[in-house]
Design a protein that fits this description.
Its EC number is 3.6.3.24. It comes from Sporomusa sphaeroides DSM 2875. One of its GO terms (molecular function) is hydrolase activity. By secondary structure, this protein is α/β, with parallel strands linked by helices. The chain has one domain: Rossmann fold (3-Layer(aba) Sandwich), CATH 3.40.50.300. The protein has 7 helices and 9 strands, in the order E-E-E-H-E-E-E-H-H-H-E-H-E-H-E-H. Strands 6-7-8-3-9 form a 5-stranded parallel sheet, sandwiched between helices. Strands 2-1-4-5 form a 4-stranded antiparallel sheet, with helices on one face. Helix 4 runs parallel beside helix 5. It is globular, with a radius of gyration of 17 Å. The chain starts with a strand and ends with a helix. 33% of the residues are buried. The model has no long low-confidence stretch (mean pLDDT 95). It binds adenosine-5'-diphosphate and magnesium ion (MG). The site of magnesium ion (MG) has 4 residues, from helix 1.
Length: 203
Amino acid sequence: MLLEAKNISFRYRKGPWILKDVTLSVGEGERVGLVGPSGYGKSTLSKILAGYIKPTSGEVLLDGRELQEEGHSPVQLIYQHPEKAINPLWRMKDILNEGWVPDQLTLDSIGIEQGWLERCPGELSGGEMQRFCIARVLGPKTRFLIADEMSTMLDVITQAQIWELMVRIIEDRRMGLIVVTHNKALAEKVCTRIISLPELNKL
Ligand code: ADP
Ligand code: MG
C-alpha cells in the first residue's frame, strides 16, 4: 500500500496560498513525521490526505488510484481535541461503535477497560479518550493513520504510552502512519522518517 500526495497546492477560497506543489509518499509499515511550526499548513495537508478537503490542484493517490469519496476512507485522521468532534451526552460505547464495532481483542490491545464504556466523554481522562479515538479509526478498511497533534494535550507519561501503543498497532497491522506535530523531538522518537513541511512547501 502506498499513499501519495502529488503536486498538492491549496488555498482557502480566495485567501493566500497555504500549500504549493507539495509532493510526498508514505508506504506501509512506515512512520513518517510531518513537522513544522504552527500555522504552516500541517493540519490543512492532513485533511487533504484524508480526503476531507479537496486540493485546489494536485492529487492524492492510494496505490495509484484516487481516494473514493463515499464510504469509509482507508486514510483516517486522529485529532488533538477529540472531545470537540463527539457528542458529550453519548455513552462511550455508542461513540466507539458508531463507525464499526471493534472486537474485544482490539479493545484489550488498546487498553480500553470495560467500565469506561458506560461513561460519557467528560468522565474520561485525555489519554483514555485518545484510546477510544484510536479504536474508532481502526476499522477493517483502514490502511493509513494521520495523527494530527494527537498527544499535544497529554502529559509526558501518557504520551509515551499512547505512542508505544500506536507503534505496535502500525507494525502489527502493516499500516502506515503520519505523525503531524510541531514537536520535532517527538517525531524523531516515534518515526522512521521525518519530513519538514516548510522545506517541502514551494511557497
Ligand atoms: P498548522 O496545522 O501547521 O498549524 P493549519 O493548516 O491549521 O496549520 O493552518 C495553515 C494556515 O491556514 C493558517 O494561516 C490558518 O489561519 C489558515 N486556515 C486554517 N483553516 C482555515 C479555514 N478554514 N479558512 C481559512 N483559513 C484557514
Ligand atoms: Mg495543526
